[in-house]
From TrEMBL:
Every WxL domain range: 581-729
SUPFAM superfamilies found in the cross-reference section: Concanavalin A-like lectins/glucanases
Matches recorded under InterPro entries: ConA-like_dom_sf, WxL_dom
Source species of the chain: Levilactobacillus brevis ATCC 14869 = DSM 20054
The protein, known as: WxL domain-containing protein
Any Pfam family matching the protein: WxL
TM regions (residue ranges): none
Domain of life: Bacteria
């Protein structure tokens, strides 16, 4: 024997159990309470048992109502999945010839003037090609409010093609798209999830409401305005004459689908026994809605790319009175076939706007943990779950985090820090099988708008490179459900690297001499397979080609004379393993014998022109004096600069009354034909590579100047000045 058991309820009503048995009907009175749908339907049971985490719907100040049209089959039922406590499901359809609707309450409207986001999980049964007919997410300002329903010819008997929102194409002689649109839910926009292709054409199409999907894939997602004639495409069937009499034209209609998502390779991608995640994002300024399908993994909840479409919505078509507010919800309809149409809400428009993310940091290596940055055994790690409240009509409270922590970490501490509330300590010893429940006791609002759940620990010892998989944690409340994914990362065995130089250190070379630097890397690791080691040499700040050592750890680094500068060179060596480990850094000073010389000397220089006044005076240098010394013998070497000069003589042989003198902070000394030391200097290669600008270190009133006595005679005088460099022994 066969039968179907369905439990119905209404607010403040007694539940009635109807048992369909042949032509008989037995009515039983049940107790008041939350509805359960008792069905001989394993798919329905499986859907409830695998329902993802969602919010509670049957609560005080409910955001949604199933108390809509008197013909609606919709109900609120409890999920039975022990992993998603508190989740309630909106059941839209679960039988043939049903209309179902669930609508937001008046206070929980969709605000068209603000950016809005909604996310939910949808279930379309497991009927495959036999599924029918799907459901639709709807925005509407129909004057009937929550009682809005298409104008079905037989009240209470739904037509599957409409999905509970589109026009009713049952009048075959009706030839106006506008009149067809008048039978739909008015002032509305619908995003349909269509599991059944309605694509009849020709003489058998008119009047049968089975043509909206002409030219469309069998299963598809699309959108448009149900109450607007432009959404429909009229087709005409002229028919054949009967007994020579021309028959009136018949009409049937297709639907203009916008923003279509379909997968020809998986024609049954909706009714496949899986929960499907959908995110809707409204951008008020652009007047655009983006809907993304399958953007979370139904088994883990992890974020995945999904498929997105963006459509422009004309507010004048759905909000003719320019209120900025619109009702939202789901509708569905079935004909002779059906599927289980279920909705689990994660976030609803405008109630709580929030987001949750996760990050990991390697405190030892001081870098983020992700697919590009590996972790080494015994590294100190930190896992952070970030919660941010971005606004909404109510605060975000009573949040419970169901943390699924990354494996291969021994956790030591756990805490919650708030933007503007005292921190809370969590008991890390309660972590079991990488799971921890974290209750956030503070509410989120405009003044306390963020929190971070932080855990620290140490990476476990592993014998070989291990991939630690990503994990998804869920933060649950009555108003919002958020997920946060930690990254997948590579955990490598700990490796102890010690680098040493076996050639001379420090190293002294003669000029124009090539050399070879040698060394060895000692490796100690618990890894079953030794890691690959690379040595990174840097000479005078320039990276050289990396070196791969021999199997015994030895290596050599040829250095050409052209690579080295005269004087002091600095070579640094460090070894790294592909596990992320780093050795000690070894520094090798290399000194190349250099020389002491003038790097710049002016061949001719002059003193400034002086006007004779009969008084003694000092004449400054002109602007063409140049003198610089280059010492490439290395840091710490010393030199002395001597100067001597012949007497200044005019063209006619007259000697100048006066002569050159050297002036510094300690006084002055006359310069004559006897060498006089004037500069003592200790070379530092860090200072202009050992080049000392003698003239550049003299002010205008110091250095070599010309003393002119009061009795000097006017004329042009010349002298020969000799500069001499001398080494100062250490």
């Amino acid at each position: 024997m066969t039968g179907r058991v369905i439990a119905y309820w209404g607010k403040g009503e007694l539940a009635v159990l109807k048992w369909r048995w042949g032509a008989g009907l037995l009515a039983l009175v049940l107790a008041l309470g939350v509805s359960t749908i008792a069905r001989a339907d394993s798919d329905y049971d499986d859907a409830l048992a695998t329902a993802p985490q969602g919010i509670s719907l049957n609560k005080d100040n409910a955001i949604l109502t199933v108390d809509t049209s008197g013909y609606s089959s919709s109900a609120i039922v409890n999920a039975t999945n022990p992993a998603t406590p508190g989740t309630q499901i909106a059941m839209v359809n679960n039988n043939t010839y049903q209309f179902g609707s669930i609508w937001s309450t008046d206070e929980n409207y969709f605000d068209l003037t603000q950016d809005e986001t909604a996310s939910m999980w949808l279930y379309f049964g497991n009927q495959g090609t036999q599924a029918a007919d799907g459901m639709a997410f709807v925005l509407q300002n129909d004057p009937r409010g929550v009682a809005a329903i298409p104008d079905y010819p037989t009240p209470g008997k739904a037509i599957g093609e409409t999905l509970g929102v589109w026009g009713v194409d049952m009048a075959k002689r009706q030839g106006s798209v506008d009149k067809l649109a008048q039978t739909a839910i008015q002032d509305s926009w619908a995003l349909e999830f269509d599991t059944n292709r309605n694509a009849s054409t020709g003489g058998k199409a008119a009047g049968y409401a089975n043509s909206f999907d002409i030219g469309m894939p069998a299963v598809h997602i699309g959108s448009n305005y149900p109450g607007d004639g432009s959404s429909y495409i009229r087709h005409v069937d002229h028919g054949l004459p009967v007994l020579g009499v021309i028959q009136p034209d018949n009409y049937y209609y297709g639907l203009n689908h916008l923003g279509v998502i379909a997968d020809e390779s998986q024609p049954n991608f909706l009714s496949n026994g899986q929960w499907h995640h959908v995110t809707l994002s409204w951008k008020a300024a652009a007047k655009q809605m983006t809907y993304t399908f399958n953007d979370k993994n139904p088994q883990t909840g992890a974020v995945q790319p999904g498929v997105s479409r963006t459509v422009t919505i004309d507010p004048t078509k759905i909000d003719p009175n320019n209120t900025g507010k619109i009702r939202w919800g789901f509708t569905g309809a079935t004909g002779s076939r059906y599927e289980n149409n279920l909705v689990v809400f994660e976030s609803v428009p405008g109630l709580v706007e929030a987001n949750t993310t996760a990050t990991m940091t390697d405190l030892t290596q001081k870098q983020p943990v992700d697919s590009s940055h590996s972790v080494v055994s015994h590294d100190k790690l930190q896992v952070d779950y970030h919660l941010a409240y971005n606004g909404g009509r109510q605060s975000w409270s009573s949040i419970e985090g169901h943390l699924k922590l990354p494996a291969n970490i021994s956790y030591e501490t756990a805490k919650i820090t708030y933007a503007n509330q005292p921190a809370e300590t969590l008991d890390a010893s309660q972590i079991s099988q990488q799971k921890l429940t974290a209750a956030l006791h503070q509410s989120f609002n405009q003044t306390n708008d963020a929190a971070t759940v932080s855990l620290t620990g140490e990476a476990d010892e592993v014998a070989k490179s291990t991939t630690v998989p990503a994990t998804t944690s869920t933060f649950v409340s009555n108003a919002y459900v958020g997920t946060a994914d930690t990254p997948s990362f590579q955990l490598n065995p700990n490796v102890d690297l010690n680098l040493s130089v076996t050639s001379d250190n420090p190293l002294a070379l003669k000029p124009e001499t090539d050399t070879v630097m040698t060394g060895k890397v000692h490796l100690n690791t618990s890894a079953t397979a030794p890691p690959q080691v690379t040595i990174h040499p840097v000479l005078n700040g320039t990276r050289l080609t990396a070196i791969t050592p021999a199997t015994d750890g030895t290596f050599s680094l040829p250095l050409a004379a052209s690579d080295l500068q005269a004087g002091t060179n600095t070579l640094t060596l460090v070894a790294t393993a592909d596990t992320g480990d780093t050795s000690n850094t070894v520094t090798v000073p290399i000194t190349v014998a250099g020389d002491l010389k003038f790097s710049d000397v002016a061949s001719t220089s002059h003193f400034q022109t002086a006007t004779l006044t009969g008084q003694d005076q000092v004449v400054k240098r002109g602007d063409d004096w140049r003198l610089a010394v280059s010492d490439t013998r290395g840091t710490g070497r010393q030199w002395v600069l001597d100067v001597q000069a012949t007497p200044f003589v005019a063209d006619n042989g007259t000697a100048l009354a006066g002569g050159p003198m050297y002036v510094d902070a300690y006084g002055s000394v006359a310069i004559d034909e006897v060498p006089t030391p004037i500069v003592w200097h200790t070379t530092d290669d860090r200072d202009h590579d050992g080049v000392y600008d003698v003239m550049g270190n003299w002010s205008a009133d110091q250095g070599l100047l010309l003393a002119v006595d009061g009795g000097a005679v006017s004329g042009n005088y010349t002298s020969t000045i000799t500069w001499t460099l001398g080494d100062v022994p250490s």
